[in-house]
Design goal:
two-stranded antiparallel ribbon, about 120 residues, Lambda_DNA-bd_dom_sf, mainly alpha, Cro/C1-type_HTH, globular, disordered N terminus, 8 helices
Amino acid sequence: MNFTIQNVTIVYGAIELNMRLERMFQLRANDFSTSSIFADNEYLKRAMGSKQFDLSMEIIKLERELNLSQKEAAAILNLPLDRFLKYEAGDRRIPEDRFQKVIDELSDLRDDRNGVLS
């Protein structure tokens, strides 16, 4: 799978990407800022400091709680897979309210599965 982020193309296999996201999810935010990999990269520091990044982590968390694949989550949300992946990646070009809509829909699904009335 190819993802283009500001003239930088990163090529990941689905498993490798999932493992990297899992590792990112496990680390605390300040671990990122002190890591030599991230400390010298202004683009990554800005991206990871954005509200969209925080919201993308919430989307990934809900996806994991619901035991959904990326394809399944995209289908449930009626989004093309490539668009859903932009939400997961914390694309800063997407307005925060759209991220919140995705989170709300996944949260509602979680609550429905758990028998919680909204």
